[in-house]
Write a structure and sequence with these properties.
The chain has 134 residues and is an alpha+beta fold. 46% of the residues lie in helices and 15% in strands. The longest helix has 38 residues, at 96-133. The N and C termini lie far apart (100 Å).
């Protein structure tokens, strides 16, 4: 391939995002998987959905075989410029008061689930005592 050894930006790689032109970033390397789409055991949709981002985690999570990893060499077109890949978003838990509100409403529901049957039982017991005494 003419682009071997070339350094690409994420924007450049992201342009290759359809069945006729599909590039992925895996392990800091750029692969043109267009010719492999039909042969991919997981289907082409999986590959197409991984375009425009660093697909390393997706690739590793599946647990590809050694032969699959060796096969990648024939699709290699270059490296990705790591400075063009945005840092992974970290999970920011919601603010504490909001979390407490959720817990409070959950607690109230559980309390009511306990108290309502107890109140009904108490009412029934009270009615029974009242009717026996009259």
């Amino acid at each position: 391939m003419g682009g071997e050894g070339k350094v690409f930006t994420l924007a450049q790689v992201s342009e290759h995002n359809n069945p006729k032109d599909c590039w992925l970033i895996i392990g800091g390397k750029v692969y043109d998987l267009t010719k492999f789409l039909e042969d991919h055991p997981g289907g082409d949709e999986v590959l197409l959905s991984a375009t425009g981002k660093d697909a390393t985690d997706d690739f590793e999570d599946v647990g590809h075989s050694t032969s699959a990893r060796e096969m990648m060499d024939q699709y290699y077109v270059g490296e990705i410029d790591p400075s063009t890949i945005p840092k992974k978003a970290t999970y920011n838990p919601s603010k504490q008061p909001h979390y407490n509100q959720d817990k409070t409403s959950e607690f109230i529901i559980k309390l009511l689930q306990f108290l309502v049957p107890l109140a009904i039982l108490g009412l029934a017991f009270g009615i029974r005592i009242y009717t026996k005494s009259t």
